[in-house]
Amino acid sequence: MSNTIRLTVSQALVRYLAALRVEFTHVDGRTEVVPYVGGAFAIFGHGNVTGLGESLHQVRAQLPTYRAHNEQGMANAAIAYAKANFRQRIMAVTSSIGPGATNMVTSAALAHVGRLPVLLLPGDVFVTRLPDPVLQQVEDFEQGDISANDCFRPVTRYFDRITRPEQLLVALPRAIQVLTDPAQCGPVCLALPQDVQTFAFDWPAEFFEPAVIRFRRPPAEQRELDDAVALLKTARKPMLVAGGGVLYSQAWAALRDFADAHGIPVVESQAGKGSLAWDHPLNLGAIGVTGSPAANAAAAECDVVFAVGTRLQDFTTGSHSLFSHAKLLSLNVQPFDAGKKRGQALVADACAGLAQLSAALGDWRADAAWTDMSRARAAAWVARVTELTLNVPTDTLPYDAEVIGAVRESAADMGLDSGTNDLVVCAAGTLPAELHKLWRSGLPGNYHMDYAYSTMGYEVAGGLGAKLARPEREVFVLVGDGSYMMLNAELATSVMLGRKIIVVILDNRGYGCIERLQVNSGGASFNNMLDDCIPEGGQPSSIDFAMHGRSMGAEAVHVQDVAELRRELVRARAATKSQVLVIDTTHRRTTDDGGTWWEVALPEVSPRPDAMAAQARYVEAKKKQFH
């Protein structure tokens, strides 16, 4: 008779998670075996406190539990933790049933779109159904097995509802397989009925001795590799688009070596920024709608686009108008992505595929004139970034670029290198565009952006998750007032946990990014800026963000200008507690350099002449799209 251990479902689940180990690769190439699950975020309620909560308490020394303030916030933090660890480690997240669970659905969608791992463990209603309907239970008049947790089905890679203890023997390994698979990676939801959490079972002892996780790096199939080599050798002016897959594969050295060996300029998507050091002579910077002039000029002239580890999102491709004239080669571990837009697919891990392809290309190089032009463009853009971020006028409100420059230069003020130590977190508004162009990342992972789902409110929680993953780095959260108001509770969590983050709030008094889009698309300014939204009998909005930060336990100040911001950033860097720095900015000024068309559907009929003029421009721009 095999050796067994009698435990509840919850006890077995957390013991299994605590036992998981992973071969973790650091940025510098060192490897070590560490716990795969870095901890669990939990907000307890009647659906999880007596089952999973009691079990987490038993293993708190091996699997730490962190108390959060909002379920979406804690799930966002867990996702950021995984992202900052290049998907090599995860956190689990547990909530009660009802609103606690559905608060995490947005986070599940964020992780699903961004191909990021997180283990969601929402409580569920009684499997026996004897007390139905319980508090917070969603009842369906036609399907008796439906619960609120079924909302997770379309936004997770794997969903299961554990209705018997022994199901966990299959569901847990399957969940970990999905979380660690380079192509399938994404959120997993194991819904846990509150009574099932407490059911006991005799578990095989060997279940709690899982093998060390080692990530697969699948190579390219020879026929596809041969076809890729043949296509690239036809190119005179190739361009490489580095996506998030380069970072998750930890292929930055392979990317650098490939670019150097073959003279190919590199441009970076939002997810791929930081794949190549900002000052590498062939790094043309950001591509697409939020791209640099150097990158977008290359995109307009290239003859082959080599897309590595990118989903080819519309912001990267200019809604598939920017380089629709060029041939497309897509190296991606996920066949779904590799086959997009009828591109030639090379299905492989980014690191393995780049090494194979480079070896097969031998001494082939892009045209020397193309490589030389790319170097000149890259150098000119580096100089222009310095100019944009440091030349601060004193007669007008600052805008995002000047705040970004202040953050960067505050490191130099302390004799530090911001390119290697400073990690910036952002997600929504105008800031992603400015940061994509202007942030300088000298180390992979120092640019942390959710611009897949672009979730307003991700920023503060994401900063906390990044700090948990990278405690040695200074984590800056750059966030607009609109996003900050959406979700800021995990600022208090960062103080409680002693995980310092520096939150820089750019207050432009409204949804400035969308107001610009609204007006530039021929619409009237409406329902975006706070001063325009006061009804009769209402009062102007007056929000003291510094006072709010102090009320959450952080140290906070509202600065008067960029010069004071820079001084306060020096103080904030030396502090040990989370910081909030607020500065008034304008949404009217943006960085005009670079950028390209982005498709936003416009009305075919409108009484506004401006709207009809914009619609005409829209129709003309669509002629450049890939069909």
From TrEMBL:
One of its GO terms (cellular component) is acetolactate synthase complex. InterPro entries: DHS-like_NAD/FAD-binding_dom (IPR029035), Myo_inos_IolD (IPR030817), THDP-binding (IPR029061), Thiamin_PyroP_enz_cen_dom (IPR012000), Thiamin_PyroP_enz_TPP-bd_dom (IPR012001), TPP-bd_CS (IPR000399), TPP_enz (IPR045229), TPP_enzyme_TPP-bd (IPR011766). It is an enzyme of class 3 (hydrolase). GO terms for molecular function: 3D-(3,5/4)-trihydroxycyclohexane-1,2-dione hydrolase activity; acetolactate synthase activity; flavin adenine dinucleotide binding; magnesium ion binding; thiamine pyrophosphate binding. Residues 225-357 form the Thiamine pyrophosphate enzyme central domain. Pfam families: TPP_enzyme_C, TPP_enzyme_M, TPP_enzyme_N. One of its GO terms (biological process) is L-valine biosynthetic process. Residues 428-582 form the Thiamine pyrophosphate enzyme TPP-binding domain. This is 3D-(3,5/4)-trihydroxycyclohexane-1,2-dione acylhydrolase (Decyclizing). Its EC number is 3.7.1.22. Belongs to the TPP enzyme family. It comes from the Bacteria.
